[in-house]
């Protein structure tokens, strides 16, 4: 396998990989959700065995506005604007992240709009049919306030709700918001002042309709990102399920200690994170609800037994925010870093994590993500100089042998098998390794694909400018300047590449490669094209140097 064939193989593999990812995105395109709210058949759970939650917990029809609910309160912190009604978080806006379609309004994760229905819910199921609060009814604000604001200088904000049962059992639920944090602590304290013991199981779930397809798709530079449910258990680690597979793969039922459940989307996610060591069961369901089919993932448990005159408590974290690597790491939750879904394949996920760590380190010094990408390329190319040296030395040796190869080709005529055997014998006698020039290209393939996933998932690069005309490194170049530069760089590199002995068909294919890559990169995220252009420029300079170092002319046949 010579250098040219390997380059063509690498190029077509990369094209095929990216086309496959685009095909997967189109294949997974969700249907448009119905615009009318559909009443559900599931009843509010009032009588169930411990730990049992009905397959389709009831969904109340969405109000015109989440804040219109009589028990709803609004909460404003430095990073979250939310609407709660005790059993549900009905609305959540992220002021620090403007919407891609309209910069004037922030990203909204939770919403009661039937077309974008998405809420976080939590309630209780009591044993023996005893009364208990559900996510639909029971909790009321514990005080007169209907609006809360994180005070200047305060580190936390507590928003209390309470349910008072007829049997002397009460549940006091407190949402605790922290400054600068997207993790909301939800703490339930169960007090039993009655005469009989009470036993109940808490459930926490996320429910939404199928999310709409991103506008513009591939042509706008938007890349495919996983959308669906994900969960983590200490025994089976990270697992996920796309929305289209909810019904086909069957209902999930997994007993877990600790872990977490989440719904993922591009750049953002929501998750319920039980306390470490809590026993629960992870489940999925697809009931009919607001806006049509609701895709539900829940954590059921733990179960608390509260004797008369006693109380017990349980708490969990509700993450509502971006896939910020630093903030996720600060939660110190096992496996939560996988919510930044760099890839389904562990190799690419690990490699993408390393690339991001280097990129973030560079950004700490440079302060610009675009220049940090350029710095990342410089580091990678520097580390690969020894491999490049081997590559060009091998190319030079093979170039010197081209007259002898031409003789062998003439001697054996159309007998390609004999020609290949004679050529390999020639390489053996001359101590030339035809694979010597392959390693740098083979290394570039996983790096490029890992970078593709890293740039598509890193919310830190969302709306991040580079300079001049590049205002968003995760969107395509609006004026196609970088793709045009890439075409020029690839063309110049071809001019420097020796073509002695190259098959005419291969030569024609090589001539078309700059155009193919130019068209393909025209719709890639500009940050990815910036990486490839910088890599191409450094490769061009490297090739110019090594051709002069090893560029002695081949001997005549």
UniProtKB/TrEMBL annotation:
Principal cellular location given in the protein's record: membrane
Membrane topology reported for the UniProt record: Multi-pass membrane protein
Localization per Swiss-Prot or TrEMBL: Cell inner membrane; Cell membrane
Entry's transmembrane regions: 6-24, 369-390, 432-455, 475-492, 512-533
KW Repressor (keyword) present: no
Ligase found in the keyword field: no
UniProt KW keywords: Cell membrane, Chaperone, Membrane, Protein transport, Transmembrane, Transmembrane helix, Transport
Domain Membrane insertase YidC/Oxa/ALB C-terminal: 369-546
Residue ranges of domain Membrane insertase YidC N-terminal in the record: 73-349
Lineage: superkingdom: Bacteria
Function noted in UniProt: Required for the insertion and/or proper folding and/or complex formation of integral membrane proteins into the membrane. Involved in integration of membrane proteins that insert both dependently and independently of the Sec translocase complex, as well as at least some lipoproteins. Aids folding of multispanning membrane proteins.
Family: Belongs to the OXA1/ALB3/YidC family. Type 1 subfamily.
Subunit text: Interacts with the Sec translocase complex via SecD. Specifically interacts with transmembrane segments of nascent integral membrane proteins during membrane integration.
Name this polypeptide is given: Membrane protein insertase YidC
Protein's organism: Cognatilysobacter xinjiangensis
């Amino acid at each position: 396998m010579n250098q040219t064939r390997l380059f063509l193989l690498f190029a077509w593999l990369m094209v095929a990989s990216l086309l496959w990812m685009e095909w997967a995105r189109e294949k997974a395109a969700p249907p448009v959700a119905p615009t009318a709210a559909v009443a559900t058949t599931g009843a509010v759970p009032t009588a169930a065995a411990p730990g049992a939650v009905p397959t389709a917990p009831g969904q109340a029809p969405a109000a015109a506005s989440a804040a219109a609910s009589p028990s709803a309160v609004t909460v404003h912190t430095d990073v979250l604007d939310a609407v709660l009604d005790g059993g549900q978080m009905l609305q959540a806006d992220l002021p620090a992240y403007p919407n891609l379609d309209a910069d004037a309004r922030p990203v909204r994760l939770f919403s009661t709009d039937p077309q974008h229905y998405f809420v976080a819910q939590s309630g209780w199921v009591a044993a023996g049919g005893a009364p208990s609060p559900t996510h639909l009814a029971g909790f009321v604000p514990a005080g007169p306030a209907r609006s809360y604001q994180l005070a200047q200088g305060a580190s936390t904000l507590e928003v209390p709700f309470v349910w008072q049962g007829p049997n002397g059992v009460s549940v006091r639920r407190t949402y605790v918001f922290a400054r600068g944090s997207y993790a909301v602590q939800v703490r339930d304290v169960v007090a039993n002042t009655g005469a009989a013991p009470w036993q109940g199981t808490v459930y926490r779930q996320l429910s939404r309709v199928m999310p709409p397809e991103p506008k513009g798709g591939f042509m706008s530079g938007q890349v495919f990102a996983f959308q669906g449910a994900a969960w983590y258990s200490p025994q089976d680690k990270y697992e996920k399920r796309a929305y289209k597979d909810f019904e086909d793969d069957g209902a999930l039922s997994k007993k877990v200690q600790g872990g977490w459940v989440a719904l993922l989307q591009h750049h953002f996610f929501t998750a319920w994170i039980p306390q470490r060591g809590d026993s629960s069961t992870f489940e999925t369901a697809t009931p009919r609800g607001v806006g049509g089919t609701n895709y539900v993932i829940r954590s059921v448990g733990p179960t608390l037994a509260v004797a008369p005159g006693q109380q017990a408590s349980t708490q969990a974290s509700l993450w509502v925010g971006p896939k910020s690597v630093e903030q996720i790491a600060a939660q110190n939750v096992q496996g939560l870093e996988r919510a930044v879904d760099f890839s389904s394949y562990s190799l690419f996920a690990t490699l993408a994590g390393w690339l991001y760590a280097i990129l973030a380190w560079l950004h700490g010094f440079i302060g610009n993500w675009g220049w940090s990408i350029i710095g990342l390329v410089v580091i990678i190319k520097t580390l690969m100089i020894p491999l490049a040296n081997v590559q060009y030395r091998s190319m030079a040796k093979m170039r010197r042998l081209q007259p002898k190869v031409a003789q062998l080709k003439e001697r054996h005529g159309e007998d390609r098998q004999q020609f290949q055997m004679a050529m390999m014998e020639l390489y053996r006698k001359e101590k030339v390794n035809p694979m010597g020039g392959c390693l740098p290209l083979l290394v570039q393939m996983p790096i490029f694909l890992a970078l593709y996933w890293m740039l598509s998932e890193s919310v830190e690069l969302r709306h991040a400018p580079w300079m001049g005309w590049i205002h968003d490194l995760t969107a395509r170049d609006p004026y196609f300047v970088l793709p045009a530069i890439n075409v020029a760089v690839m063309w110049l590199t071809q001019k420097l590449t020796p073509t002695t002995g190259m098959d005419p068909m291969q030569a024609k294919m090589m001539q078309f490669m700059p155009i193919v890559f130019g068209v393909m990169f025209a719709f890639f995220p500009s940050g990815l094209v910036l990486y490839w252009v910088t890599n191409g420029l450094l490769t061009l300079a490297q090739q110019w140097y090594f051709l002069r170092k090893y560029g002695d002319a081949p001997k005549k046949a």
